[in-house]
Amino acid sequence: MKAAFGSIALRLLLAGIVLVATCLGAAVALTDPAPATLPGRVWAWMSARPARASAPPQARAARAVDTAPPVFSDVAFDDSGYASAIRFSGPIADPSSLQQVRESVMGRGRRGVAYLEAKLAELKPGDPSAARVRMLLGSIWMYEGEWDEAGRQFARAQTDDPKASPLARANLDALRGVAALRRGEVENCVSCCNEASCIFPLAAAAIHRRVEGSREAIEHFTRYLKLRPDDLGVQWLLNVAYMTLGEYPDAVPRDLLLPLGRFVETTDGLARMPNIASRVGLNAQGSSMAGACLVDDFDGDGRLDVFMPTTDPERGASLLRNKGDGTFEDVSDSAGLAHQVLSLNACHADYDNNADLDVLMLRGGWETPRRMSLLRNKRGVFEDVTLAAGLGEPIASQAAGWADYDNDGLVDLYVAGEFDPGRPDPRNRGRLYHNKGDGGFENVAVAAGVTNDRFGKGVAWGDYDDDGFPDLYVSNLGQPNRLYRNNGDGTFLDVASALRVAEPIDSFACWFWDFDNDGRLDLWVNPNRATLTEVIKDQLGMPTTGERPRLYRNVGGAEGFRDVTAEVGLDRVVLPMGSNFGDLDNDGFLDVYLGTGRPSYSYLMPNLMFRNIGGRRFEDVTAATGTGHLQKGHGVAFADWDRDGDLDLFVEAGGAAPGDRAHNVLFQNPGHGRHWLTVKLIGTKTNRAALGAKIRVDLPSADGAIVSRHRRITAGSSFGGNPLTCTIGLGAAETIKMLEVTWLTSSTRQAFHNTPIDCAVEITEGREGFHILDAGPIGSR
């Protein structure tokens, strides 16, 4: 096992041991006797006992007070086991080998089980240290999806230390409840998936038929809440458990009953969106773990396909080809993706201007540097050209973005690394890869001034100051975010603090967009810091300190941006992962979908949909649209896959642990009776996919005035993948006064005055007129 641990992994594991001891209410002596072997050092920390004789009288008296914190508090124990299991990853001798990357992860949970069981066998009967080991062991069984065994280990941990406090034992009851509740989820809404499964609030068709898991969860949560009645997080899970049995609210004890609050707010004017993913073949491979979702035409046949990387070590990335008959077919193997494993996020662009959309796959996020994959596309068949392109240096990354920052007609690439200033690894500095035009890239981040040197989690390109050069936003975990203004000479200047867009400090996915249709790019930044209790408090309208997203309105000039989050109704405690935006109801204003959760199984909450009301405010339409899926939402894309003129919603679902697999989701938009226009751009001097180009549509309003709709060519969020075409809602307008395109590299504008509506048009840079694409609706089953 020695080779399986690096110094960083050791520190992480030791931190986990201390956390376990904290949750069990035990103090841990932070002394390291430094035995010869690394596992021995780990075990020395595990078995450390509180110092006794030297403790002052005040400290001895304090021990009589039960100070064990709630298990899902700010010092939360990761019940998914992911944080424990990753420390048992194997070595990677050859960084270029994806097979070694796969092998390092395959079986790491079982390696952890074997290691901890061996340590348990070495303990003498009655050794209270066994409780801490069993808590870790139970978490790794949770990682593996072995719920009964995890529950047994947590139960044994309750009796292994006779001096454990009642609150410490109660924490283990909460963990046993989470294991049982997840077992019920898997046996019902995952293994026996139907269109209503996991959609909150649960309909009759989603009620669990196999009730044992939820029944057991209720028993454990109730016992826990007798000692911790103020824990709203566990109280929420108890209410969800009753809901899965169809017994909410009647059977919930009155003192533990929670209203559903904002989770069930309804609104008029929006129809429910059924989940048709299984019906159309999106789940042919079964359930999946966390990953990305890119929707675009990857084989050049004019239909939108779905590209989905995954962190599941047992499979490669997936390409689901749109057959044009209302179904998708799995062509992953013939597309060359079988060996493209363990990627949490990806982004697409046509980097070589050959009319085929290429894909960059990212690896190592939350873990350790691993190699990326640059996949060159040739009509739906992908070739891994990473090493030849000069992108082979490993990096721990979950976020990247394409843009032509120097306006030479070739898209360049920024990759955000998870650089920890406390444990600096130069491989994790941010990288700006300049596209040389010969198939290769050169990292110019140092000269450009964009290394970030922070823990990057989101990347967004956008020309916020309209000077013709894309600017770069990088969201960071634990430190202020960056807004790198493009100086136009190959260098950038961080103006985030000056323009007041450096928060939230713990950030995640982000994007530039024009939410109010004033022609200026605004900025959305997702947070990444809140407990389950804080989320539930916010949903119930209670005061909470949990982090909120930030919506920064671009006001232009020296002022730059203004935080309008509260003003527009987005002052909500949320925990987004995957997310994206699109015009759900074709009113011309961009709406938002947030895939929520954390790796821990206990973070069970519905994903969220927010409708944009005229660029003035947002309202929660999750319940009205039926899009509140309870499984963790990662890659998100809005796309009109069936070419009927409205945007449907794709969600890559599933968590970071093998036990947290889920089925992917396709919410079908039933339409809202409004007009639309889809625009596809082809660059000639500008990069061929026209990334960064601007589209403006002028429409007549009811009072005779002209209103405009503004769009940029972008894939949207840094954890999502919209098509590089624009479907623009026209509302009730029956004519278009003008359609205008502003091209990036040539700085030219083309205006069209006879554009039809309710169709798709193709516009080529520098060519007169437009081409109406002969692409009728695709029937669905």
UniProtKB/TrEMBL annotation:
Taxonomic classification: Bacteria, Pseudomonadati, Planctomycetota, Planctomycetia, Isosphaerales
Organism of derivation: Paludisphaera borealis
Family matches, as PROSITE patterns: TPR
Record-given protein name: ASPIC/UnbV domain-containing protein
Keyword annotations of the record: Signal, TPR repeat
TPR repeat ranges per the UniProt record: 131-164
Residues of the ASPIC/UnbV domain: 690-758
The UniProt record lists the keyword Membrane: no
